[in-house]
Design brief:
mainly alpha, 69% helix, globular
Length: 486
């Protein structure tokens, strides 16, 4: 299997260099295949997880060979809107990389940290240039490709659930177990290497399906079809045992309709009502579906697949997600900040100290990663309090920039605006998930996808203005937005 995997990787990287416009699809293909190939390889070597990075790097080189500008400042408005906080953040990350290297003496650990923080940046620029050249048609073509092959891979969750025996199924290594429903449950990961990654893909497929079916052309049949497919994905994703999958989907849908109400209907009160009623309605649904999982014992949930009680136990864990939010926000959101400061000081432990995968290079008795499960704790652990504050500044600056983008799109192109609402909702859902659980966000393909999403979003004003000019329209005075290309 290693020989076949490297032969495939070599072929795909050559294709990516030769045709960078196909780079997104080639990266997605390798990202889906690398986990089952790893599980079929003796000792399940960890280097498989960076194969998608090699393909993306090849596509990047291919774009450079065609003289595509791949600097952040090539993005319209980047320097003016977020240039200062971004530059300071980059300098701090580099300083913490040196700190980590001196403190722990582990080059792989520092490299993993650099990859985690910097890999989204080239992805943003790459996706921006891709969208500018191939318009929404190219973007949606990649999204549909991802949905189709990721859904095929997701079918492995059901195969594992029915005890289909194949080495490509199941988690890499010993795997995890779930204890909090009165019995021991095995999270299913299917063809993905872990249940965390499988759950992230489940949520992402659901978000993309909703955006592709309902976001661009809205009608009642398309809405019902989107809701039905999302419901099927939720049912399948429940078997991963990762409850934040459902939170991501709910936040995505609520954020999408909130943005539609705010920008396209001009109804701030309606937007606020949608946001509050979405959260309140979900809490009500959870309360009506069943009792607190803690009230159940092992005796009431036997491991009997035929009776359906095993799936019921997974569903109970899904239902408990809202009840756990206050405790998880405290335990994984706020408490880790003070823990990291008390343990390692105001400047943290250095880059990579809380990143996934570094346990292979620095032993747990040398590095205590207790604060790194939540996003705030991870940032404080690796970048210190200055890094946490700089990250907050950069997010606020980026948020203001994105808000201007959406306001501009709402005036000149409602179609582009609706697509933008979906992209923003997807980023918001992932931001919320990262704040309380960082495991999936150590995956390179996850980071690249988030970077691609932001790049597509920042390209929308250019695409909308081009579409407006091609239809021989005149830009309304209130639709001005920065320095768009003439």
């Amino acid at each position: 299997m290693p020989e076949l995997a490297f032969a495939l990787l070599f072929l795909v990287t050559l294709m990516a260099v030769a045709s960078w416009r196909n780079g997104l699809m080639l990266c997605t293909l390798i990202a889906i295949l690398q986990d089952p190939m790893r599980k079929l390889t003796p000792d399940q070597p960890v280097y498989f997880v960076v194969m998608v990075g090699a393909v993306f790097g090849a596509a990047w080189i291919g774009a450079l060979l065609e003289r595509v500008p791949l600097r952040p400042n090539s993005i319209r408005g980047w320097r003016q809107q977020i240039g200062t906080p971004f530059a300071l953040f980059v300098l701090l990350v580099l300083a913490q990389a040196a700190h980590s290297l001196v403190r722990f003496g582990s080059v792989p650990m520092t490299a993993i940290g650099l990859l985690a923080y910097f890999s989204p940046l080239p992805a943003i620029v790459f996706a921006y240039q891709y969208a500018v050249r191939f318009d929404l048609t190219g973007v949606t073509r990649w999204m549909w490709f991802y949905v189709m092959i990721a859904t095929l891979s997701l079918s492995g969750i059901y195969l594992e659930y029915i005890d289909y025996d194949w080495a490509a199924l199941g988690e890499v290594g010993e795997g995890l177990v779930v204890y909090d429903v009165g019995m021991i449950l095995k999270p299913f990961s299917g063809f993905f290497r872990s249940s965390e990654i499988a759950a992230w893909h489940t949520a992402t497929i659901a978000c993309f399906v909703f955006l592709l079916l309902f976001g661009q052309r809205r009608s009642l049949p398309r809405l019902l079809l989107a809701i039905g497919l999302v419901a099927v994905l939720i049912a399948l994703g429940t078997l991963t045992g990762r409850r934040k999958m459902l939170v991501q989907i709910i936040i995505f849908i609520s954020s999408y309709f909130l943005l539609v109400a705010w920008f396209q209907r001009g109804a701030a009160k309606v937007a606020g009502f949608i946001g509050l009623s979405g959260l309140a309605g979900y809490v009500l649904i959870v309360g009506l579906v069943g009792p607190d999982p803690g009230d159940h014992s092992f005796d009431t949930h036997q491991m009997n697949i035929g009776s359906g009680s095993l799936y019921e136990a997974y569903a109970l864990r899904r239902q408990s997600v809202i009840q756990d939010i206050p405790a998880r926000f405290s335990d994984l959101g706020l408490a880790p900040i003070s823990w990291a400061v008390n343990q390692y000081g105001w400047f943290g432990a250095g880059l990579g100290s809380g990143s996934q995968g570094t346990q292979h290079f620095v032993a747990d008795d040398v590095m205590d990663r207790g604060a790194a499960e939540g996003g705030f704790g991870k940032l404080t652990l690796e970048l210190g309090v200055p890094g946490l504050l700089l990250a907050a500044w950069m997010v606020l600056a980026l948020g203001r920039y994105i808000w201007r983008v959406l306001a501009y799109l709402a005036v000149i192109s409602p179609g582009h605006a609706r697509f933008g609402y979906g992209l923003v909702a997807f980023l918001a859902a992932n931001g919320a998930a990262f704040s309380v659980a960082t495991q999936a966000f150590g995956d390179l393909f996850v980071l690249l996808t988030l970077g691609w999403t932001l790049g597509f979003l920042l390209a929308l004003p250019v695409l909308a203005k081009r579409a407006m000019r091609s239809s021989h329209s005149i830009t309304p005075p209130q639709a001005k937005f920065g320095n768009l290309p003439r």
